[in-house]
TrEMBL record:
Start and end residues of each Helicase C-terminal domain: 235-381
Keyword DNA repair: no
Protein name: Superfamily II DNA and RNA helicase
Region annotation Disordered: where it falls in the sequence: 372-436
Length: 436
């Protein structure tokens, strides 16, 4: 199937061809015809599957027709959970709609100055891409007219649910026309998303693309067990010395850790910078521009960067700290292996991370193979029975175990009153391993 077979407007086809795309992805094949027909849809598709084009191409197709209502307000509204994703969607709209006459795309995001946004909203706009919180500010001030809105798109609805934006999303939806077309994209279609879809969508068509396992086949996943922060930093240095590494994103658990680690890497000679939610929009844009232009080899980020960054030269993703949720692991490592390329995802796990590893492997349906680096082997090994860590047995302990196996249980053993296991070894966080 080609894009021409999807009956898109010829000027949109021209932009697609100029971008170098020849065939639609599975999500595009299924979603575009439904959206052109005017149906509401709820779709499950992960980052890297072409979902942005799946909703933006039919949105632009509708914009090729003149509006029925005269107004300066938007005809298409896209809500995203993060500023980075909003910028990505805006850029896609401009790229695919470049040959359509008078198609105005603007972004309304937190961190941008209000006077600039007020000026943009005072002019006619076709596609408005926004984060929920800032958009509600403008709605409450009466600066947006939704009278001619034709399509409402909720991108990464599951993330907006996780971030507590759903009440804002529903408030925004209530301010829009009832006869609009509503589109919801989500990584998962769990109970929470289903309830939201029931409230916001009208008899939606359902589309589900790819399994977790299929999506990760082009990403090599590696696991390194770590003893403490010093051990973790040495392993990170080893990974960053890989000559095949073009660009990498290193994920940390906190914004403070991102700043500290980026400063440490820069001091050690790496072209590194941090990206997190406490930075203003100008700083974030400047950092992402450096990354896209190749001026950064290492980006140290919190989960704010797990969605919305599409840079083809990212060959490695490094989980310096494992994420709290298995879904975030998939979104993190999805920053590499884009558009059919291969990638490498490296994760560091401490003695506290056994349960997180188990959840990640259950969610993806794939075990993560553990690796060791000569000279940097961990002192502690994983205990598969408890998903914790235990110290390797000494030769004497191994001999005693072999003797018990050969001659049976020790004298006086009572199966009903087995000797309790020894207390777990004290946490390795002593000495500042956890820098929260």
């Amino acid at each position: 199937m080609s894009f021409e077979d999807l009956n898109l407007h010829p000027l949109i086809i021209k932009a697609i061809q100029e971008s170098g795309y020849t065939a639609p992805t599975p999500i595009q094949k299924q979603a575009i015809p439904e959206l052109i027909s005017g149906a509401d849809i709820i779709a499950s598709a992960q980052t890297g599957t072409g979902k942005t084009a799946a909703f933006m191409l039919p949105a632009l197709h509708h914009l090729a027709e003149p509006p029925k209502i005269r107004s300066r307000g938007p005809r298409v509204l896209v809500l995203t959970p993060t500023r980075e994703l909003a910028e990505q969607v805006s850029n896609a709209a401009k790229k695919y709609g470049k040959f359509l006459p008078r198609t105005k795309v603007i972004s309304i995001l937190g961190g941008m100055p209000y006077p600039l946004q007020n000026k943009m909203l005072s002019q006619s706009v076709d596609i408005l891409v926004a984060t929920p919180g800032r958009l509600i500010d403008h709605i409450q001030r009466g600066r947006i007219d939704f009278s001619r809105l034709q399509m409402l798109i909720l991108d990464e609805a599951d993330r907006m649910l996780d971030m507590g934006f759903i009440a804002d999303v529903e408030q925004i939806a209530s301010a829009t026309p009832k006869d609009k077309q509503t589109v919801m994209f989500s990584a998962t279609l769990d109970g929470g998303i289903e309830k939201i879809a029931t409230r916001l969508l009208r008899s939606p068509k359902r589309i589900q693309i790819a399994s977790q396992k299929a999506r990760l086949d082009n990403i090599e996943q590696r696991l390194h067990y770590v003893d403490d922060l010093s051990h973790k930093n040495k392993l990170l240095d080893h990974v960053l010395q890989d000559t095949t590494l073009k660009q990498a994103i290193v994920f940390t658990a906190t914004k403070r850790d991102a700043d500290l680690l980026a400063d440490n890497l820069y001091a050690r000679g790496h072209t590194a910078a941090a990206l997190h939610g406490d930075m203003n929009q100008r700083e974030r844009n400047r950092t992402l521009t450096r990354l896209r232009k190749g001026g950064l080899r290492v980006l140290v980020a919190t989960d704010v960067a797990a969605r919305g960054i599409d840079v083809s030269d990212i060959t490695h993703v490094i989980n310096f700290d494992l994420p709290k949720f298995a879904e975030d692991y998939v979104h993190r490592i999805g920053r590499t292996g884009r558009a059919g390329a291969s990638g490498i995802a490296v994760s560091f796990a401490s003695n506290k991370d056994g349960i997180h590893l188990k959840r990640i492997e259950r969610y993806t349906g794939q075990p993560i193979a553990s690796h060791t680096v000569p000279g940097l082997e961990p002192r502690f090994k994983p205990n598969q029975r408890s998903n914790g860590f235990k110290k390797s047995a000494t030769p004497a302990q191994q001999k005693r175990k072999r003797t018990q196996s050969a001659f049976g249980k020790p004298q006086g053993f009572n199966a009903n009153f087995a000797r309790p296991s020894r207390p777990a070894r004290a946490s390795l966080s002593k000495g500042g391993f956890e820098r929260r």
